[in-house]
């Protein structure tokens, strides 16, 4: 059996193309499982997984929890808001206390970039990064690529534009790494203030005109503006942002082709996309959510198979 080249999923930048192919093949198998009447497999009956969320999350946390339970793992959930972290406990102490309960794998979301990498060097468990600050969100990028492959047959050669708040987005960075690794062409589009200075070093072009970007692409991945990560104002007003970078049905229908619309959620309806776009046949937003469970099952299963018993 093939296995992953890594013992942790800390970021897409640590994976190779074979890793992504293996995750997708495994996810295909699990997608069949979750569409059966009995949606569980006993694959990880002897594995205990801790979900550590130091930042708010709905979809990612529920998706991981569901993936773990579908694999029959034992699951413990930890929310920093109601924990001893509030009393000043360090990250390593928190995790070591949890690991002493014989936990095999930790799925962690943390506001600090690199928290997962730091943890992987100090604790004896497999770490899955569920988002670290504005750095990476590897499972989101994997499920996005998986959804593109499902809708369009393959990722290689496709033109993908990522629109919106690139500066604060871990989804954008992980997507750029994943798409480039699989041979897609990538552009980013958004206000200049929300595009990082280093972006072209990643082999990505910048397009500030939304219409031109949409006419070029096969897929548009629409990101929300992350107001919670902004200490200053990056554009004059939400209304002005929507006028320049929001996608509505009229704009989509005026293009000379049909493009696929994606969104990692949560959607700010009426800001980056209107409801008639979000709910249209061109959008694969709910497919992304469904595929997220299969892809996360694949990641957890493949990492668990590398844990030394």
Automatic annotation (TrEMBL):
It is an enzyme of class 2 (transferase). Keywords: Pyrimidine biosynthesis, Transferase. Its EC number is 2.1.3.2. One of its GO terms (molecular function) is aspartate carbamoyltransferase activity. It comes from the Bacteria. The keyword Disulfide bond does not apply. Carbamoyl phosphate binds at residues 59-60, 109, 137, 140, 265-266. Heterododecamer (2C3:3R2) of six catalytic PyrB chains organized as two trimers (C3), and six regulatory PyrI chains organized as three dimers (R2). Belongs to the aspartate/ornithine carbamoyltransferase superfamily. ATCase family. This is Aspartate carbamoyltransferase. The gene is pyrB.
């Amino acid at each position: 059996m093939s296995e992953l080249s890594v013992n942790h999923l800390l970021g897409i930048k640590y994976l190779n193309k074979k890793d992504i192919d293996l995750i997708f093949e495994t996810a295909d198998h699990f997608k069949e499982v979750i569409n059966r009447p009995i949606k569980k497999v006993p694959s990880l009956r002897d594995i205990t997984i801790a979900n550590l969320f130091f930042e708010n999350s709905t979809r990612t946390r529920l998706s991981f929890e569901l993936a773990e339970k579908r694999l029959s793992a034992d699951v413990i959930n930890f929310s920093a808001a109601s924990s001893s972290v509030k009393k000043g406990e360090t990250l390593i102490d928190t995790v070591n206390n949890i690991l002493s309960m014989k936990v095999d794998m930790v799925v962690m979301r943390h506001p600090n970039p690199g928290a997962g990498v730091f943890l992987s060097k100090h604790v004896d468990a497999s770490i899955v990064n569920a988002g670290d600050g504005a750095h990476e969100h590897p499972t989101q990028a994997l499920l996005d690529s998986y959804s593109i492959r499902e809708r369009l047959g393959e990722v290689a050669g496709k033109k993908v534009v990522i629109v919106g708040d690139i500066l604060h987005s871990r989804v954008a960075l992980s997507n750029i790494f994943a798409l480039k690794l699989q041979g897609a062409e990538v552009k980013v589009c958004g206000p200049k203030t929300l595009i990082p200075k280093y972006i072209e070093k990643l082999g990505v072009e910048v397009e500030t005109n939304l219409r031109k970007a949409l006419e070029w692409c096969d897929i548009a991945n629409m990101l929300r503006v992350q107001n919670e990560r902004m200490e200053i104002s990056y554009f004059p007003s939400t209304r002005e942002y929507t006028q320049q970078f929001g996608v509505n049905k009229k704009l989509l229908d005026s293009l000379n082709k049909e493009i696929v619309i994606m969104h990692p959620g949560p959607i700010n309806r009426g800001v980056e996309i209107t409801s008639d776009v979000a709910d249209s046949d061109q959008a694969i937003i709910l497919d992304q959510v469904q595929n997220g469970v299969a892809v996360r099952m694949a990641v957890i299963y493949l990492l668990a198979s590398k844990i030394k018993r």
